[in-house]
Amino acid sequence: MIPVAIVDDGEADRYLVKRRLARSGKFGELIEFVSGDRFLEEFFDGTPSAYSRSEPLLILMDINMPGRDGFETIEEFSARLAASHRPDNTLILMYTSSLNSKDQQRAREFGVIKGYLEKPMRNNSVDFILGLYNDHCAA
Amino acid sequence: MHELYQYEFAFEVSPVPMLLVSASGEILLTNSLLDDLFEYDAGELIDKKVEILVPESIRKHHPDMRGGYFGKPVKRNMGQGRDLHGITRTGKVIPLELGLDTTIVDGKPCALVVALDISQRKLHEEHMNLAMDAAASAMIMVNSKGCIVFVNKAALSLFGYEEEELLGSPIECLVPDEIKHAHPDFRGGFMSASKPRPMAKERALYALHRTGRKIPVEIALTPVDTHDGKMVVSTVIDLSERVEAENAMARKHQEMSALNEELMQFAYSASHDLKAPLSTIIGLLELCLEDLEEGELDSVSEVLHRTLRIGMRSADKVEGVLEIARVARSPIAAELIDMASMINDIWVDLTGSLDTSASLVITADHDQSVFLEKNTLHVILENLLSNAVRYVDRDKERNIIEVRSRTEDDAIFIDVIDNGIGIPEESQSRVFDLFSRIDERSDHGLGLTLVKKHVDRLGGNISVTSTVGVQTEFSIFLPLQAMRKAS
């Protein structure tokens, strides 16, 4: 069962992800965050079980959010992860409705971002995620 | 030593009009050319005072001038630098050039005068001047010493001088200070080369107006050979309007670019921010159809309700964007506003349905009402107060929101201060940007954009200072004078 963190300020978007992933039956615990700051706080200061599992944590990251945007959140996440000497056991995917080619370009430039998923979440989006996840685990 | 008769023959063969005048002003001898010029019969002028030939206007002073000459007789032209005239028997005034020399006749000093009729030359000059005056471009003629010998009307109006101020002055009085020194050399160089050419082809050229203002010009130089020697005619074209037009064009271009950039930004933000909820709605409806096929009616109902909420929120957001777009460029009629009661009304509307612990403090140090666009001020204050209420710091014992306003020199200064959660420094610069949301409490990210647009339109200014966890202060300045004019 794949543990999931969804970081998105849109309640309906989080709901969609929850429902889609639940249907596939392959995903386990799903934690929702309304902003990048909340996610960072929880990941580094909280102790949810999802972060300590052996399976990599799937992180679905929105780009346009109030406060820290998706990219800024990931930058901060990588920096803090490196400083904490914790092993990186995550798979980060951008999950956005952004049409901006600059955003897609930027996502490619981030080594830790493994995919760019366009909203809304559909059935084949789940297959896409599973494909990436399995590749990531095999590598 | 000569005898008078010795002159008689010389006078008759002379190709130019001549006369001999005694120190006391009696005409002793004339030749027929002179008699003809002044329309007298042969010999008629003999023994007459020379003043008979002098125009009325200087006749009175002429004996003194004559006396002066005999006091210090040298060979010279009479009346250097001025136009000389003679008067004929019939009262016709003729332009003359007069040469003077002294001689002794029958033991007495006499003046030998050569009188050249320069009517033709003058006429020719006049035609030239008329033609040059008629020219739209400024024209200045300079002699080999660099002195101005002619300016046309266009030049006088371009440089702001009277004709007599410029005539005889060095051309350098029209040259800007930075090249005044080098100019005589440039001038000398041109005089010796003397081929028509434009001045200073490669760089911007300026001429000096009487007031010291620099005029952008284009100057063409043409050498001319005249009766009085080599001259240079400068044709000066005033480029002020062209330069001004170019500048205006450049400014317009810059404005357009900025506007275009703003529009692109808006189109991008708007399309993204308006597309996002549509994507979500599509996703939800797809899910809904699947739920329906599977007979999950409870789920169908829930998804539809979510879809509906997003639809309504989006409509609300579009309305907000339209309100910003609608902010009129032309002012709305101003009216007298009682600030305190307006703020109180807004406060009641905002907090009536809310369970808020915040308290409002109003400080106004002006007793009178202010004269402003009522609805606009309402929108501004309502947005600022609603933000202050939304971002209260629940960890603080007392939440205080304060509105201070004061009038000063036809302007009103309004500060809205709250001891709420504050705005992180990195977000402060974009609080007024379209769709800029600071945290999850933010609404559509339109309120402060609307406020700023209104404040800008009224010719005012809005700024924010904030310390996280301490306080946030929005400061507005609005000119009141502009309001009065607008009404």
Mean pLDDT of chain A: 88
Count the strands of chain A?
5
Oligomer state equals: heterodimer
> What's the CATH H-level homologous superfamily of the largest domain in chain B?
Histidine kinase-like ATPase, C-terminal domain
End-to-end Cα distance of chain B, whole Å, is 97 Å
Strand-helix topology:
The complex is a heterodimer of chains A (139) and B (487).
Chain A: E1 2-7, H1 11-24, E2 27-33, H2 36-45, E3 57-61, H3 70-84, E4 90-96, H4 101-109, E5 113-118, H5 123-138
Parallel strand pairs in A: 1-2, 1-3, 3-4, 4-5
Helix pairs in contact in A: 2-3
Chain B: H1 4-13, E1 18-22, E2 27-30, H2 32-37, H3 56-59, H4 62-71, E3 76-77, E4 84-87, E5 93-105, E6 108-117, H5 119-134, E7 138-143, E8 148-151, H6 153-159, H7 163-166, H8 177-180, H9 183-193, E9 197-198, E10 205-208, E11 214-226, E12 229-238, H10 240-293, H11 297-326, E13 335-337, H12 339-351, E14 359-364, E15 370-372, H13 374-390, E16 400-408, E17 411-418, H14 425-428, H15 447-457, E18 461-467, E19 471-479, H16 481-486
Parallel strand pairs in B: 14-16
Antiparallel strand pairs in B: 1-2, 1-6, 3-5, 4-5, 5-6, 7-8, 7-12, 9-11, 10-11, 11-12, 13-15, 16-17, 17-19, 18-19
Helix pairs in contact in B: 10-11, 12-13, 13-15
Explain this structure to me?
The complex is a heterodimer of chains A (139) and B (487). With 139 residues, chain A is of the alpha/beta class. Chain A has a domain at 36-53 and 73-98 and 105-117. Chain A is 46% helix and 22% strand. Chain A is built from five helices and five strands, in the order E-H-E-H-E-H-E-H-E-H. Chain A has helices spanning 11-24, 36-45, 70-84, 101-109, 123-138; strands at 2-7, 27-33, 57-61, 90-96, 113-118. The two termini of chain A are 18 Å apart. The mean pLDDT of chain A is 88. Chain B has 487 residues and is α+β, with helices and mostly antiparallel strands. Chain B folds into four domains: 4-117, PAS domain (Beta-Lactamase), CATH 3.30.450.20; 122-238, PAS domain (Beta-Lactamase), CATH 3.30.450.20; 244-326, Helix Hairpins, CATH 1.10.287; 335-486, Histidine kinase-like ATPase, C-terminal domain (Heat Shock Protein 90, 2-Layer Sandwich). Chain B has helices at 4-13, 32-37, 56-59, 62-71, 119-134, 153-159, 163-166, 177-180, 183-193, 240-293, 297-326, 339-351, 374-390, 425-428, 447-457, 481-486; strands spanning 18-22, 27-30, 76-77, 84-87, 93-105, 108-117, 138-143, 148-151, 197-198, 205-208, 214-226, 229-238, 335-337, 359-364, 370-372, 400-408, 411-418, 461-467, 471-479. In chain B, the strands form four sheets. In chain B, strands 1, 2, 3, 4, 5 and 6 form a six-stranded antiparallel β-sheet that branches. In chain B, strands 7, 8, 9, 10, 11 and 12 form a six-stranded antiparallel β-sheet that branches. In chain B, strands 14-16-17-19-18 form a five-stranded mixed β-sheet. In chain B, strand 16 and strand 17 (411-418) form a beta hairpin. In chain B, helix 10 packs antiparallel against helix 11 (297-326) and helix 12 (339-351) crosses helix 13 (374-390). The model of chain B is unreliable at 482-487 (pLDDT under 50).
